[in-house]
């Protein structure tokens, strides 16, 4: 069985999560957030752009399919 990474996961590997968290803390980006974290927002927006999604329902459905 061949195991490989999806194009989306390969793209996310270019954004080190620890470095991203340090930048979020430095700029206090999550001080007013209520639902999404900055990381979740980034992942959602990247997925939306790559999938050419037009609505929130398309994004949610597409991300749900990726999880299995």
Strand and helix map with partners:
Layout: H1 7-12, H2 17-27, H3 38-51, H4 56-67
Total individual domains: 1
Strand content: under 5%
The SS-based structural class is mainly alpha
Q: Write down the secondary-structure element order.
A: HHHH
Uncertain residue segments: none
How would you name the oligomeric state of the polypeptide chains in this document?
single chain
Protein name: DUF4372 domain-containing protein
InterPro entries: DUF4372
Domain DUF4372: 4-66
Verbal overview:
Residues 4-66 form the DUF4372 domain. InterPro entries: DUF4372. The chain has one domain (7-67). Helix 3 crosses helix 4 (56-67). The protein is globular, with a radius of gyration of 14 Å. The protein contains four helices and no strands. The longest helix is centred in the middle third of the chain and has 14 residues, at 38-51. The chain is an all-alpha fold. 0% of the residues are buried. The protein is 63% helix and 0% strand.
Give the structure's gist in a few sentences.
The protein has 68 residues and is mainly α. It has 4 helices and no strands.
List keywords for this structure.
single chain, 68 residues, mainly alpha, 4 helices, 63% helix
């Amino acid at each position: 069985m061949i195991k490989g990474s999806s194009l989306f996961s390969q793209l996310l590997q270019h954004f080190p999560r620890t470095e991203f968290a340090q930048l979020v803390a430095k700029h206090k980006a999550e001080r007013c957030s209520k639902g999404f974290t900055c990381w979740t927002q980034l992942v959602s927006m990247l997925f939306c752009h790559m999938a050419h999604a037009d609505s929130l329902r398309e994004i949610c459905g597409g991300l749900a399919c990726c999880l299995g």
